[in-house]
Automatic annotation (TrEMBL):
Domain SusD-like N-terminal: 24-237
Organism: Butyricimonas virosa
Stored InterPro entries: SusD-like_N, SusD_RagB_dom, TPR-like_helical_dom_sf
Entries under Pfam families matching the protein: SusD-like_3, SusD_RagB
SUPFAM superfamilies assigned: TPR-like
Record key words, sorted: Cell outer membrane, Membrane, Signal
Domain RagB/SusD residues, every copy: 373-501
Family: Belongs to the SusD family.
Protein name per Swiss-Prot or TrEMBL: RagB/SusD family nutrient uptake outer membrane protein
Residue stretches in coiled coil: none
Cellular compartment(s): Cell outer membrane
Location (main, coarse): membrane
Superkingdom of the organism of origin: Bacteria
Keyword Signal in record: yes
Length: 502
């Protein structure tokens, strides 16, 4: 396929590119020229969720990850070296990626699938004679498609365009937005950040009532109304629409206020200890998966656990580790420090957040694989932190912000330590120091869930130094490389997108 950019594909051609469509195509007659049933569109939408490794490098860009050359073994493949270009912020991070940066094409392809669903599902034929049921199915699938399209554009605009600023968003270039399903051979130009975010908000506003009024049990790997509301709260936060972010996050918490409670884990001496990992086994490994869809606080999970590409030990033959700076941000009594990370026998920080199997205390996978856990997760903890940050920006919101922080932190600290080390007091903060505390709390809570890079971009854009195979590299404060470069193959076929400044 020569023009693998944006959405310029007919359905059959598109499926050939995506690979995951192959099985679906085998299920329909070869002479079938278009989709016709609700099940056809449901399966097409399911493919658009991209249950494959898509974005393993996003956390490599941040200050949450270190590359330790001393641990590299030349006789190993060292396959995670693929992401050194990203770790060192090459002008184009894909320089070390054999297939280039594939996120742009895959996410736009996914968005194309949602366009097909949105444009055509209203005419789909149902599998039952009950037209009420058929219409309910159509509307639910359409609602999911709107939510997923918003999700894809949210990622794309936060990777390949500047951070949102209400003062300049009307004139700042965003990314191309195309809602069509035609295969016209035309160039796609960027629209403003204001228009991109406006489209994301519109899609979510379309999605939520369709999903609320046409309930279907699809599990947490697909969007529900509550997950769409949570995503909208995130979008409003990024847009600095504080009141709207508060309203949306409160709606989510009113429906589901659950938090992952670590207090009992803090009383377990195997978990809460500075001692390095020894030989944990099925009888001694404590804890359950922090990011499992089975947890009541988890609203949506997407894709697979992509961290095995980076942290997989012998699987990935990698010397990327959680950074010492991240490890040291956790305070005394904070159970997350040891639930998320542990030192190994060499003293290196090892990633543990996804190593606990989700269903039972007696199932532990020694190496991270793609088969369990997730990297992209929407959960209720984010709503509390959105509320804290949004209130911190309001003139009279400091006490409310601290209250939401304390609600979150209380279940993450050992009970005996919370009052002394964990509880925050409003009188100790200025608005700015409170914001910095909230951003640090987000760093601790969401480590390796693809939040940190976006948070760095939209807040302080600090200077960061990383080491690689041949020396170090520095990302300067407010560096233009906080906006990733458009992949070269996309610029080759669609130069009117325009490269990002360097």
């Amino acid at each position: 396929m020569e023009k693998r950019y944006l959405y310029k594909f007919l359905f059959v051609c598109m499926c050939a590119v995506l690979g995951a469509c192959n099985g679906y195509l085998e299920e329909i007659p070869q002479n079938k020229q278009k989709l016709s049933t609700t099940d056809d569109y449901d399966q097409l939408l399911n493919n658009a969720y991209l249950t494959q490794a898509v974005l393993p490098y996003i956390d490599v860009l941040t200050d949450d990850m270190d590359y330790i050359v001393a641990d590299r073994r030349p006789n190993f493949a060292n396959s995670a070296d693929t992401y050194l270009g990203a770790h060192l912020w090459d002008n184009s991070i894909e320089t070390t990626m054999p297939n280039g940066d594939e996120v742009f094409a895959k996410f736009y392809n996914s968005a194309y699938n949602t366009n097909v669903v949105i444009d055509n599902i209203d005419e789909a034929v149902g599998a039952v004679l009950d037209m009420t049921e058929v219409e309910r199915t159509r509307k639910h699938i359409k609602g999911e498609a709107y939510a997923l399209r918003a999700f894809r554009y949210f990622y794309l605009v936060n990777m390949y365009a500047a951070p949102y600023d209400p003062a300049t968003c009307a004139t700042t270039p965003g990314i191309p937005v195309n809602l069509e399903t035609t295969a016209d051979d035309k160039a796609y130009r960027r629209v403003s950040l204001e228009k991109v975010y406006g489209q994301i908000v519109d899609d979510l506003k379309n999605a939520i009532p369709l999903l609320e009024e046409n309930l279907m049990e699809t599990g947490k790997t697909r969007f529900s109304a509550l997950a769409a509301k949570a995503l909208l709260a995130r979008v409003y936060l990024y847009m600095q629409e504080w009141d709207l972010a508060i309203e949306q996050a409160k709606e989510v918490i009113e429906s589901n206020s659950a938090l992952f409670d670590l207090r009992a884990a803090g009383e377990n001496s195997v978990i809460y200890t500075e001692a390095p990992i020894t030989e944990w086994n099925e009888e001694t490994i404590p804890g359950i998966g922090y990011l499992s869809e089975k947890n009541s606080n988890v609203l949506f999970v997407n894709g697979i656990n992509e961290l095995y590409m980076i942290f997989g030990g012998n699987t990935a033959q990698s010397v990327f580790y959680p950074s010492e700076t991240l490890y040291n941000t956790y305070e005394k009594g904070d159970v997350r420090k040891y639930y998320f990370m542990r030192r190994n026998s060499k003293g290196r920080v090892r990633y543990m957040k996804n190593r606990y199997y989700a269903e039972t205390y007696l199932n532990f996978v020694p190496q991270i694989t793609s088969d369990y856990g997730y990297s992209r997760v929407i959960r209720t903890e984010e709503m509390y932190l959105i509320l804290a940050e949004a209130y911190a920006h309001k003139p009279d919101g400091l006490s409310a912000a601290v209250g939401y922080l304390n609600t979150l932190r209380e279940v993450k600290f050992r009970a005996e330590d919370f009052e002394t080390y964990g509880r925050l007091h409003a009188e100790d903060f200025t608005p700015q120091s409170l914001l910095e505390t909230i951003w640090n709390e987000r760093r601790r809570e969401f480590c390796f869930e693809e939040h940190r890079w976006f948070d760095l971009r939209r807040t302080t854009r600090p200077s960061i130094v990383h080491s690689g195979l041949n020396g170090s590299a520095t990302l300067q404060k407010d560096d233009p490389r906080y906006v990733l470069q458009i992949p070269q193959k996309e610029l080759n076929v669609n130069p009117e997108i325009g490269a990002n400044p360097r």
